[in-house]
Design brief:
Strands 1, 2, 3, 4, 7, 10, 11, 12 and 13 form a nine-stranded mixed beta sheet that branches. A hairpin with a 7-residue loop joins strand 8 and strand 9. Helices cover 33% and strands 21% of the residues. The longest helix has 25 residues. It is of the alpha+beta class. It has ten helices and 13 strands.
């Protein structure tokens, strides 16, 4: 990720299969921490041996509940957000909040805050079933030439916890739970259709627009991302059909060929804006002739000082998530 490649890891399987535990885990014992906090460790282990290179790191956390996109870290976690598409085809969430992070502990605070706002409910198969798909994203910008600010790479790591596929006859879902299950199954079906279209090779149209989930993961499926799918299975014999379905899903997904590339010199990189602003302020200070004149220098609206402090120095060593190197 620190070399400029995008990455995505998502857990798929039936409800109660262990997807949320795989992604989040538990704090104690430490051996049962999930993939998301372990990703924090690897990123900031790289930060700890910093030299020569700068990184700017932000985090965002959203959920897709009943086909509505919500910001789990926003002032109103239930507010509906809209998807937008840039001229280059990149899909993003309008008004999604971004939070600067500078350590593992701040990442965990952000993660836990968002997790508390996530929609969950009780079914016959899972007492705390996730009723939404969640996407925790780490956004990272790297500058190899702090003086010139010309060598900039930007990347992101999507850590996705999908809601579980479920059968109404087994979960006993009624009312709101049944409505949630219907939306979940429709979005997972859309995801399966996208995978089938990509694997088929003869399809001229890939139905990314059939759901909010597939639109947000568009770049992760057949695009510019290194992607890993984790298939979560139930050991119970009465879940045989669901287990077989998950394995077939994974077997199709592994045949997708992505085209990851290093994201070099992005035009809208935040770190470039910050470096330009710092350079401008230094020039203003150099031109000022006295302490009095320095006080007259107007304070810029952006970037705010506390944001500038979030630019952390790191080395050019690469983040190594071993399994992330596998491309679907």
């Amino acid at each position: 990720m620190t070399e400029g490649y995008n990455g995505t890891v998502f857990a798929y399987g039936q409800t109660g299969g262990g997807k949320t535990f795989t992604m989040q885990g538990v704090v104690d014992p430490a051996t049962q921490r999930g993939l998301i906090p372990r990703a924090f460790d690897q990123i900031f282990d790289t930060v700890a041996v910093a030299e020569e290179t700068r990184y700017l790191i932000h985090a965002s956390f959203l959920e897709i509940y009943n086909e509505e996109v919500r910001d789990l870290l926003g002032e109103d976690p239930k507010a509906r957000l809209e998807l937008r598409e840039r001229p280059d085809g990149d899909v993003f969430v309008k008004d999604l909040s971004m939070h600067a992070v500078s350590s593992v502990s701040t990442c965990e605070v952000v993660m836990n805050r968002g997790w508390k706002n996530r929609a969950t409910g009780s079914t016959a198969m899972n007492a705390v079933s996730s009723r939404s798909h969640s996407i925790f994203t780490i956004h990272l910008e790297r500058c190899d030439d702090p003086a010139g600010g010309s060598k900039i790479r930007a990347s992101k790591l999507n850590l996705v916890d999908l809601a579980g596929s479920e059968r109404q006859s087994k979960t006993g879902a009624v009312g709101d739970r049944l409505k949630e299950a219907t939306k979940i199954n429709l979005s997972l079906s859309a995801l399966g259709n996208v995978i089938s279209a990509l694997v088929d090779g003869r399809s001229t149209h890939v139905p990314y627009r059939d759901s909010k989930l597939t639109r947000l993961l568009q770049d992760s499926l057949g695009g510019n991302t290194k992607t890993l799918m984790i298939a979560c299975l139930s050991p119970a014999d009465n879940n045989y059909d669901e287990t077989l379905s998950t394995l077939r899903y994974a077997n199709r997904a592994k045949s997708i060929k992505n085209r990851p590339r290093i994201n070099e010199d992005p035009k809208d990189a935040l770190i470039r804006q910050y470096l330009d602003e710092i350079r401008r302020l230094k020039e203003m200070l150099d031109r000022s002739g006295s302490p009095a004149s320095r006080e007259e220098i107007p304070r810029p609206a952006t970037p705010e000082p506390q944001i500038i402090e979030k630019i952390v120095h790191v080395s050019s060593a690469s983040l190594s998530l071993p399994s992330l190197s596998s491309v679907i």
